[in-house]
């Protein structure tokens, strides 16, 4: 599994809960974060570096735990690797399409993910009768990384982004950034109890579990798992944020250099 930084750790956390016997290796490309300000061509080049590095560990499946990469580079990664590649957009869109009651679906994401139109296109295909509205919420990312997930400040930020969505009556909101699950409670409070909150991390973990089961790729129950954590820069800061995202000690974070 890889991401441009720490956000994908919300997917890792859910995946470990869903598949507790599986080995994992997570790579955060902290030397190049954020990907959201880059062109699609550059994002794909960075993604291929991460994917090929992870392939050297003998992985059996790759999870692209980054919405920007999932929007721009999934096909290139699937073409480059001989193993299954799973992104976060399609599972999140499928879960939102299943939850909507025929009203309006809101996509909450970074500016790059919203501008890519990937979620909007997937939802229009999967739920053609639903209206789709997208809202960029860039300040949610630093709030999540700094641990400001509850209280007055995140509440005010959420109200700035989301009160208009509540006014127009959305019935489903998909968290289209892997940082946003840390703010899910605040987001839900602002949108109101009638809005279904869809966590793309949960949906991705379920998609991975289903795919692995269908291809008989699962390790046997009771097998002891190993979890490795890699990053490309500032491992001490990465470890501190990772422990907050995962809710457990991380141990050693290995510093790696991605070579073309």
What does this structure look like?
By secondary structure, the protein is an alpha/beta fold. It has two domains: 2-87 and 203-255, Rossmann fold (3-Layer(aba) Sandwich); 89-200, 3-Layer(aba) Sandwich (Rossmann fold). 47% of the residues lie in helices and 15% in strands. The protein contains twelve helices and ten strands. The strands form three sheets. Strands 1-2-9-10 form a four-stranded parallel sheet. Helix 2 packs parallel to helix 4 (74-80), helix 5 (89-99) packs across helix 7 (118-126) and helix 5 crosses helix 11. It is globular and about 50 Å long. The mean pLDDT is 93.
Helix and strand topology:
Layout: E1 2-3, H1 9-18, E2 24-28, H2 40-55, E3 62-63, H3 67-72, H4 74-80, E4 85-86, H5 89-99, E5 104-109, H6 111-116, H7 118-126, E6 131-136, H8 140-145, H9 152-168, E7 170-175, H10 184-191, E8 196-199, H11 200-214, E9 227-231, H12 235-246, E10 254-255
Parallel strand pairs: 1-2, 2-9, 3-4, 5-6, 5-7, 7-8, 9-10
What's the total helix number? 12
Query: Main sheet?
Result: 4 strands, parallel
Can you tell me the number of structural domains? 2
Task: Look up the CATH topology of the largest domain.
Answer: Rossmann fold
Alpha-carbon Rg, integer: 18 Å
Percent strand equals: 15-25%
Give the low-confidence spans: none
Element order, helices and strands?
A: EHEHEHHEHEHHEHHEHEHEHE
Q: Please report the first level of CATH classification, the CATH class of the largest domain.
A: Alpha Beta
Content-based structural category: alpha/beta
């Amino acid at each position: 599994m890889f991401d441009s930084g720490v956000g994908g750790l919300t997917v890792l956390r859910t995946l470990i809960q869903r598949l507790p016997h599986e080995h994992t290796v997570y790579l955060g490309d902290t030397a190049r974060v954020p990907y959201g300000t880059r062109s699609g061509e550059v994002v794909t080049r960075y993604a291929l570096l991460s994917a090929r590095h992870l392939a050297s560990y003998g992985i059996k499946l790759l999870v692209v735990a980054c919405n920007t990469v999932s929007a721009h580079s999934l096909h290139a990664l699937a073409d480059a690797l001989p193993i299954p590649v799973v992104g976060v957009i399609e599972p999140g869109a499928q879960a939102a399409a299943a939850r909507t009651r025929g009203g309006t679906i809101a996509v909450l994401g970074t500016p790059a993910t919203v501008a890519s139109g990937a979620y909007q296109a997937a939802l229009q295909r999967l739920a053609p009768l639903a209206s789709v509205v997208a809202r960029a919420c860039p300040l949610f990312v630093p709030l999540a990384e700094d641990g400001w997930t509850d209280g007055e400040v995140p509440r005010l930020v959420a109200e700035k982004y989301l009160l208009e969505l509540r006014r127009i009556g959305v019935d489903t909101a998909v968290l289209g950034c892997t940082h946003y699950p840390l703010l899910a409670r605040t987001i839900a409070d602002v949108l109101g109890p009638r809005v279904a909150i869809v966590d793309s991390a949960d949906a991705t973990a379920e998609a991975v579990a289903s795919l692995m089961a269908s291809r008989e790729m699962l390790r046997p129950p009771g097998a002891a798992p190993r979890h490795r954590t890699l990053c490309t820069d500032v491992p001490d800061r990465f470890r501190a944020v990772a422990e907050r995202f995962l809710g457990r000690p991380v141990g050693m974070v290995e510093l790696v250099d991605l070579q073309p």
